[in-house]
Design goal:
globular, 212 residues, Metallo-beta-lactamase, Chain A, 6 helices, alpha/beta, 6-stranded mixed sheet
């Protein structure tokens, strides 16, 4: 599997991840803030079709680029059912944060923790990790965890925005993510990669001495 990391150099610096099954010629993009030309070039390199845009949650800084990808490549846009309302009302988010309103295409599919997704030869496991947002999820693909804004390097996603809940994010990290193998790579929504084992020892909010 090919794995590429992209981000736009702006004040949000959101990470996007392109995964390509080079044998099955299918791909998924986890979160979508832009970089269309670079990502399209990578898809063309492997003659791959972008099957899904998998959104980890509904905040505007993770969905900026969806319209261009939808118009030009027509992937299926996926989000947890509890965050669909955020995407449907992205203009409210933009106004709250003082950024220009942008157009978001309609979500094609809503998911929950029981949803079954796949691309090429790979299964996509959905882990519901509310706390940053009500419908925040992590995606587990090929023993790699894409954590969105749930788990960061030695940190967790902020819980002071609408729908946030600190107790929920701690519970979900402790009981869902920290049950994964310690060597599981974690590809975060912002910042650098980490591992489950590193976070269990060193995360400021949720470590072996602080888990609640």
């Amino acid at each position: 599997m090919i794995l590429k990391k992209y981000k736009i150099d702006d004040r949000f610096e959101t990470n996007n991840y392109l995964l390509i099954d080079e044998k099955g010629h299918e791909a998924v993009l986890i979160d979508c803030t832009g970089n269309f030309v670079e990502i399209k070039k990578e898809l063309d390199k492997y003659s791959a079709k972008l099957k899904y845009i998998l959104l980890t949650h509904g905040h505007f800084d993770h969905i900026f680029g969806c319209l261009e990808f939808k118009d030009k490549l027509n992937p299926t846009i996926v989000i947890h059912k509890d965050d669909k309302i955020m995407v449907d009302n992205v203009d409210i988010q933009c106004n709250l944060f003082g950024i220009p309103v942008f157009k978001m295409p309609k979500v094609d599919a809503v998911i929950d923790e029981n949803s079954k997704l796949e691309f090429g030869a790979y299964d996509i496991d959905v882990i519901h990790t509310s706390g940053h947002t009500p419908g925040g999820v992590c995606y587990m693909i090929d023993n790699k965890l894409f954590s969105g804004d749930t788990l960061f390097y030695e940190n967790v996603g902020r819980c002071d925005l609408a729908g946030g809940n600190f107790n929920e994010i701690v519970h979900n990290i402790s009981n869902k993510l920290y049950t994964l193998p310690k060597d599981t790579m974690v590809y975060t929504g912002h910042g650098e990669n980490t591992t489950i084992g590193h976070e269990m020892e060193n995360n400021f909010y949720v470590n072996k001495n602080s888990i609640i």
